[in-house]
């Protein structure tokens, strides 16, 4: 359903939306998301929900939830199903339309090229029948399946994607976590400015036209004769408190032997090492250093400063939520093939620990491995992590609901870091706009204990950087 679907049709009547099965399996609450418009659920949609309800995957859970929601709606109604069931009560005022369930067999003649044994084509037949019997109102098919929408349009049926869970229409609008200050920033914000030093950082309290737009923990920078890198630490109605950063690009501030190679990496390390930040999201293309920086910060805080007891690393194994197998082996051994990125980065970090020869490096490697636990996402429900550094890799493949499940595992003293590249989504029906990673970046921006940065520059090698540009 697009944003336009929320408006009434030109003749003032409400629309009739026919739901494909994948919409209900994607978002079980979609029944309440169509505001004043009516919803029609074909019998084939119910059959497909029934055939997908078994199992422990996210899709099966959603199918069961959608069936339960429909059962509650139907059982709450005293009127007949044929007349439509009012959604106002079950949705607690979210929706004012009606829910219609297919009560009769529909024998609509489809073109010969479309075999009626296919569930998709039976749903299309229902939509065409409804369009014929309701010529006075728009009948629209809502489906997450691109081919289904193409077939519908070829048959002259209006079809739309379900966009209600989409955070952004355009991923370019996603909060980047940093902004360049205009050249005249200090001139326009100098009036009444206070500045002082505290704990080795310079702080500025200032007000001005830009102050209202700035978000907590947003990074600000200026290049030029006197380059500046600061971040917003406090925000009031018309004033902000900004503070200079720790410079992790200097070798004296190296983190487990790693120094920041560019501005965004410096911003990321400030987030990863700040004890007041509980939740960090790092976005970036391949080779921007997301995993390396996160592991370096995690090892420093687990082994040196003892802020956390251990590192827990999990990675979205696509297909997401499927079982990791019945073959012999522990959870960690089964996750090992997905953890190549972890091993590669540990090799780099282990080489930065200085002298000690082969024996020293082997001992360090064993010490590091003893503090890193690899967990599968499938067994995260119901767990609580206390004083842990939790790293979620490939987070762009999570749905918003899965992301909520993971982040709510955090107990006292736990820091959660989500890494990902929203240009590389492998999960079916997820897009850049509806990914769980996009969802949390947008929802958490401006919270005092979270921070986000989009890493721009690749630092892997000149070959990798050139390949990213030209291929």
TrEMBL record:
Report which superkingdom the organism of origin falls in: Bacteria
Question: Keyword ATP-binding: yes or no?
Answer: yes
Q: Which UniProt keywords apply?
A: ATP-binding, Nucleotide-binding
Write down any Gene Ontology CC term. cytosol
Which residues does the UniProt record annotate as the domain PIN? Answer: 15-150
Q: SUPFAM superfamilies from the entry?
A: P-loop containing nucleoside triphosphate hydrolases, PIN domain-like
Which terms does the record give in the GO molecular function aspect? ATP binding
Q: Which family does it belong to?
A: In the N-terminal section; belongs to the PINc/VapC protein family.
The identity of this protein, by name, is: Ribonuclease
């Amino acid at each position: 359903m697009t944003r336009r679907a929320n408006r009434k049709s030109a003749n003032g009547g409400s629309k009739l939306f026919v739901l494909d099965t994948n919409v209900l399996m994607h978002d079980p609450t979609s029944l309440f998301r169509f505001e004043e418009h009516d919803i029609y659920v074909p019998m084939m949609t119910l059959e497909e929900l029934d055939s997908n309800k078994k199992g422990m995957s996210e899709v099966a859970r959603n199918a069961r939830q959608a069936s339960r929601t429909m059962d509650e709606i139907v059982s709450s109604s005293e009127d007949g199903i044929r007349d439509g069931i009012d959604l106002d009560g079950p949705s607690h005022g979210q929706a004012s339309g009606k829910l219609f369930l297919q009560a009769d067999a529909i024998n609509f003649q489809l073109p010969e090229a479309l075999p009626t044994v296919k569930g998709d084509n039976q749903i299309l037949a229902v939509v065409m029948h409804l369009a014929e019997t309701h010529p006075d109102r728009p009948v629209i098919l809502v489906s997450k399946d691109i081919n289904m929408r193409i077939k519908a349009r070829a048959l002259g049926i209006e079809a739309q994607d379900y966009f209600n869970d989409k955070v952004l229409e355009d991923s370019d609008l996603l909060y980047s976590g940093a902004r360049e200050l205009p050249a005249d920033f200090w001139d326009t914000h100098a009036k009444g400015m206070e500045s002082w030093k505290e704990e080795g950082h310079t702080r500025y309290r200032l007000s001005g036209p830009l102050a209202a737009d700035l978000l907590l923990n947003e990074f600000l920078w200026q290049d030029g004769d006197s380059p500046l890198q600061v971040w917003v630490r406090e925000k009031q109605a018309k004033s902000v408190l900004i503070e200079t950063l720790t410079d992790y690009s200097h070798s004296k501030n190296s983190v487990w032997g790693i120094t920041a190679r560019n501005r965004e990496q410096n911003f990321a390390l400030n987030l990863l090492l700040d004890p007041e930040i509980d939740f960090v999201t790092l976005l970036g293309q391949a080779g921007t250093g997301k995993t390396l920086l996160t592991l370096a910060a995690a090892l420093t805080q687990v082994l040196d400063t003892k802020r956390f007891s251990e590192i827990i690393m999990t990675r979205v194994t696509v297909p997401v939520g499927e079982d990791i197998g019945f073959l012999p082996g522990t959870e960690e051994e089964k996750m090992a093939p997905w953890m190549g990125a972890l091993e590669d980065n540990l090799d780099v970090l282990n080489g930065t620990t200085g002298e000690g020869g082969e024996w020293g490096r082997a001992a360090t490697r064993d010490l590091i491995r003893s503090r890193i636990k690899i967990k599968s996402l499938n067994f995260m429900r119901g767990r609580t992590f206390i004083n842990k550094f939790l790293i979620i890799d490939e987070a762009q493949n999570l749905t918003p609901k899965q992301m909520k499940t993971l982040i709510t595992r955090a107990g006292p003293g736990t820091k959660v870091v989500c890494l990902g590249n929203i240009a590389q989504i492998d999960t079916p029906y997820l897009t850049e706009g509806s990914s769980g990673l996009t969802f949390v970046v947008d929802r958490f921006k401006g919270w005092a204990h979270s921070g986000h940065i989009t890493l721009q520059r690749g630092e892997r090698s000149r070959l990798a950087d050139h390949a990213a540009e030209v291929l």
